[in-house]
Amino acid sequence: MNAIRQTQALNKRELENAVPPEASWHADYRDTAYIYIGGLPFDLSEGDIITIFSQYGEPVHVDLIRDKETGKSRGFAFLKYEDQRSTDLAVDNLTGATVLGRVLRVDHARYKKRDNEEEEDNVAKLMGETTDRNARVEDTDDERRHKKRRSSDSREDEARSRPLLKEERELQELMMNHDDEDPMKEYLIEEKKEEIARALERDQAAITAITAIVITITEMGIDLALENAGIAVIGHYPGKSVPTETDHRQAEKNLTRRDRLCAPDPQYRERILKETIVDDHRDQIINGCCPSSSSSD
């Protein structure tokens, strides 16, 4: 702290007396472009130091002294400027500055390169590594955005290929007819999108758990017309043969147009000849056949 006060006192005296640069105490260090930086917060990296000190010139070399065993910062460093005059500005302006609660001491220094140092001017290399890291982070963010966009596009394609959910119809209504001046509109839209996502997940879970529909073919299907073709969709119960009245009603709730045309009257449901399995995803029979089903297409 005494060294900081001495430097600040020298600068104040020279400023008050209008001392010319050639007579300044800085002139004793015209042979070195290095400065010593003490009192650094231990969390600062070389890149952080370059960022702080580049406001007074172009740094070309930085040596943050680290513990040989742990690799952690010891809180001081040496920095070289491209232009020696930048050292005067850094010393005058950053001595006594507070960074993350710690007071910096900045002074001129005559630096001797260490034996294990590979190159003297390392700032370009250090900043290149920092730029590469930032680019990788940006790429990761871009990938996440693209993945999210692809997921959104796939949901839109899926919505076009199936009947709209109740929540999707509500979203369309909200987007087209809700007052644009309402500050809550955007929030309501996002909330509705979340509801749609939950509904899609719920439906997908149900499809995953139930992969087949049981269809029963009655003997009445041979003689009946298209509207009573004799195919009974009895629900997602592959192990059952004869449906209950409840099963019959539940199954009809989500029938396709073709299924509705083919659903038999309840009075024929006990006269079952055979059962067949339909692929719910491809809407086609896996085993068995039904002439009346194909004729309804």
TrEMBL record:
<protein>
    <recommendedName>
        <fullName>RRM domain-containing protein</fullName>
    </recommendedName>
</protein>
<keyword id="KW-0694">RNA-binding</keyword>
<feature type="compositionally biased region" description="Basic and acidic residues">
    <location>
        <begin position="130"/>
        <end position="144"/>
    </location>
</feature>
<feature type="domain" description="RRM">
    <location>
        <begin position="33"/>
        <end position="111"/>
    </location>
</feature>
<dbReference type="GO" id="GO:0071013">
    <property type="term" value="C:catalytic step 2 spliceosome"/>
</dbReference>
<dbReference type="InterPro" id="IPR051847">
    <property type="entry name" value="RNA_proc/Spliceosome_comp"/>
</dbReference>
<feature type="compositionally biased region" description="Basic and acidic residues">
    <location>
        <begin position="151"/>
        <end position="168"/>
    </location>
</feature>
<dbReference type="InterPro" id="IPR000504">
    <property type="entry name" value="RRM_dom"/>
</dbReference>
<dbReference type="GO" id="GO:0071011">
    <property type="term" value="C:precatalytic spliceosome"/>
</dbReference>
<dbReference type="InterPro" id="IPR035979">
    <property type="entry name" value="RBD_domain_sf"/>
</dbReference>
<dbReference type="GO" id="GO:0000398">
    <property type="term" value="P:mRNA splicing, via spliceosome"/>
</dbReference>
<dbReference type="InterPro" id="IPR045844">
    <property type="entry name" value="RRM_Ist3-like"/>
</dbReference>
<dbReference type="InterPro" id="IPR012677">
    <property type="entry name" value="Nucleotide-bd_a/b_plait_sf"/>
</dbReference>
<feature type="region of interest" description="Disordered">
    <location>
        <begin position="114"/>
        <end position="168"/>
    </location>
</feature>
<dbReference type="GO" id="GO:0003723">
    <property type="term" value="F:RNA binding"/>
</dbReference>
<dbReference type="GO" id="GO:0005686">
    <property type="term" value="C:U2 snRNP"/>
</dbReference>
<dbReference type="Pfam" id="PF00076">
    <property type="entry name" value="RRM_1"/>
</dbReference>
